[in-house]
């Protein structure tokens, strides 16, 4: 008897698994139409210089809101976009959206060093990526030096010719940051050779500051600085984390302590509050 049951379990899905499969199928069906139905939007999170307290830029983060499903988290729908091959058109849409937004901010007198956009390994492996990127910059008339592409440490390790890919991006004139740093196993001698501008320390290390994780964060800051990268801490949520990072001369930070990701109008307001204030920078 037990044997037949085991056999059944092997052949059929449990009700829970069926529900999960149903949900994934539903999401995929809706995701295929999301771009044309204008269900995607971009939110922006301020990047703060920890020495001057000025807002030096934003990270653009994709959002998907479907009338029936509501808001689906990026960690769920981005892997799906990648599996469905949709990350290429959607990624292109994000780049266009962010470049034109950055241009429009500049026209309003909102001048930031950079707009940072996440790119997936699939986009980077796409032969026409560099050419299309140039086209987007030309069409939106944004100077390439204002755009930064965020590439995770995992992606750097995944793509065979990372070094050539990054070099071709640098030729276009965009900046490059390495995202979620510390979560992969890249060799430092290899990293040193790559044309990287900013190293973004993964949030998990910043979380650990509350549990005796200072040593590791401190080490990563020193590694980044020795490699001549700008170092940014992701996911700063508390004043204690901020004070520690500032003391360790971490260059930049982002996180809920400063602001959650917000829409473009709110960014303009935050910029005016932070960068146009007459207060001298905190020491
Ligand atoms: P990421 O690039 O590491 O982005 C940082 C994530 O941390 C964002 O999550 C942001 O909302 C969140 N975050 C920032 N500060 C805090 C904080 O203080 N506390 C907490 N708990 N979270 C914080 P989000 O927006 O859910 O994005 C998740 C991931 O999805 C991103 O991680 C990125 O890998 C990916 N992603 C988002 N937008 C895009 C996109 O346009 N293209 C691609 N390829 N990936 C994207
Ligand atoms: Mg990122
Ligand atoms: Mg990150
Ligand atoms: Mg992260």
UniProtKB/TrEMBL annotation:
Residues 24-275 form the EAL domain. It comes from the Bacteria. This is Bifunctional diguanylate cyclase/phosphodiesterase. The lineage of its organism: Bacteria, Bacillati, Bacillota, Bacilli, Bacillales. The chain holds residues 291 to 573 of 573 of the full protein.
């Amino acid at each position: 008897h037990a044997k037949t049951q085991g056999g059944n379990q092997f052949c059929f899905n449990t009700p829970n698994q069926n529900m999960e499969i149903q949900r994934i199928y539903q999401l995929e069906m809706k995701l295929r139409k999301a771009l044309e139905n204008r269900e995607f939007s971009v939110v922006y999170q301020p990047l703060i210089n920890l020495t001057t307290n000025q807002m030096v830029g934003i990270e653009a983060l994709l959002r998907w809101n479907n009338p029936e499903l509501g808001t689906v988290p990026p960690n769920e729908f981005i892997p799906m976009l990648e599996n469905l091959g949709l990350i290429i058109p959607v990624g292109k849409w994000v780049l266009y959206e962010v470049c034109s937004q950055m241009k429009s901010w500049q026209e309003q007198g909102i001048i930031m060093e950079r707009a940072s956009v996440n790119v997936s390994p699939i986009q980077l492996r796409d032969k026409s990526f560099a050419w299309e990127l140039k086209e987007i910059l030309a069409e939106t008339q944004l100077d390439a030096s204002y755009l930064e592409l965020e590439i995770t440490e995992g992606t750097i390790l995944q793509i065979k010719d990372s070094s050539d890919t990054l070099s071709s991006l640098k030729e276009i004139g965009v900046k490059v940051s390495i995202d979620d740093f510390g979560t992969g196993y890249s060799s430092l001698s290899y990293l040193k050779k790559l044309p990287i501008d900013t190293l973004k320390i993964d949030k998990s290390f910043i979380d650990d500051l509350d549990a005796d994780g200072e040593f590791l964060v401190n080490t990563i800051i020193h590694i980044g600085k020795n490699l001549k990268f700008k170092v940014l801490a992701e996911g700063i949520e508390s004043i204690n984390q901020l004070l520690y990072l500032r003391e360790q001369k971490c260059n930049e930070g982002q996180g809920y302590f400063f602001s959650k990701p917000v829409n473009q109008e709110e960014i303009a307001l935050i910029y005016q509050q932070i960068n146009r204030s007459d207060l001298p920078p905190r020491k």
